[in-house]
Design goal:
The protein is α/β, with parallel strands linked by helices. Helices cover about 30% and strands about 15% of the residues. The protein is built from 8 helices and 7 strands, in the order ααααββααβαβαβββ. A hairpin with a 5-residue loop joins strand 1 and strand 2.
């Protein structure tokens, strides 16, 4: 008992296996203090403010490689306002209930209407009944020379679906989709047959063909849809379809 009393009477420094430097004070930790009040649990200081240039570069790094024009923004607002417009394929690539191809029982693999094949990028995009492809469609028709993407008019999907229902092709070959203004200007300087204000640069046009289907026959059918302009290129063997004003012309 005497030894225990002597040990308890010793200073704290002597009771420790090591001695702190002379003159140094030992930290005092109160075991009954709330852990949330301890200094080492205080919140970290806020991050330093970024300069305008640093904030711009950080925001640019988070942005998607999508280029939207004023027309795209107006179209997006219109689609949100009239979200429940008639579900016909020429208004966004959706079928009416009486036009849907048979899908079979649950768990059955649904065969696509056709497969779009981009001759520039060598990529494929199946058109499956009841499956929206709008976002993939935008990337699929990107400008292959600059890799830029724009919001394509969804009615173009409807045109291609109508063509697929009419001719039942294994695939539809896409010659051209979105064309950036820079690339469009380059083609004009090279003397190519492209318009100055091309519907391709607005995301409103697609050039395509079907192997085994005469270009004239394909032209006549797309003209009956009366969605927009239709161009006929017999030498290159493709047609142009856009969603601008209804008009027709013949190219080379």
């Amino acid at each position: 008992m005497i030894a225990i009393a002597l040990y308890a009477a010793l200073p704290l420094a002597a009771a420790l296996p090591f001695a702190p430097p002379s003159g140094a004070e030992l930290p005092v930790v109160d075991p009954f203090v709330d852990l949330n009040d301890r200094e080492f649990l205080r919140p970290l200081p806020p991050p330093p403010e970024l300069s305008k240039k640093e904030a711009f570069l950080a925001d640019k790094g988070r942005r998607l490689d999508v280029h939207l024009s004023d027309r795209d923004l107006v179209r997006e607002r219109r689609e949100k306002t009239f979200a429940r417009r008639p579900s016909i394929d020429l208004r966004g690539g959706a079928f009416a209930d009486d036009e849907l191809p048979p899908t079979g029982p649950a768990g059955t693999r649904i065969a696509p209407l056709t497969t779009l094949f981009n001759l520039r990028t060598r990529e494929s995009l199946p058109l499956v009944p009841g499956h929206a492809v709008t976002e993939r469609f935008d990337k699929f028709l990107r400008d292959y020379s600059t890799n830029q993407i724009t919001r394509m008019d969804a009615r173009l999907i409807g045109v291609l679906e109508r063509v697929a229902l009419r001719f039942s092709p294994g695939r539809i070959e896409v010659v051209s989709g979105y064309r950036s203004p820079k690339y469009n200007l380059t083609l004009r300087k090279k003397g190519r047959e492209v318009a100055r204000q091309s519907q391709h640069s607005e995301g409103n046009a697609v050039d395509f063909r079907i192997r085994g289907v005469p270009t004239r026959r394909l032209l006549n059918f797309v003209k009956t849809l009366r969605v927009g302009g239709v161009g006929y290129y017999p030498h290159s063997e493709f047609i142009h379809a856009d969603t601008g004003r209804v008009r027709y012309w013949r190219g080379s």
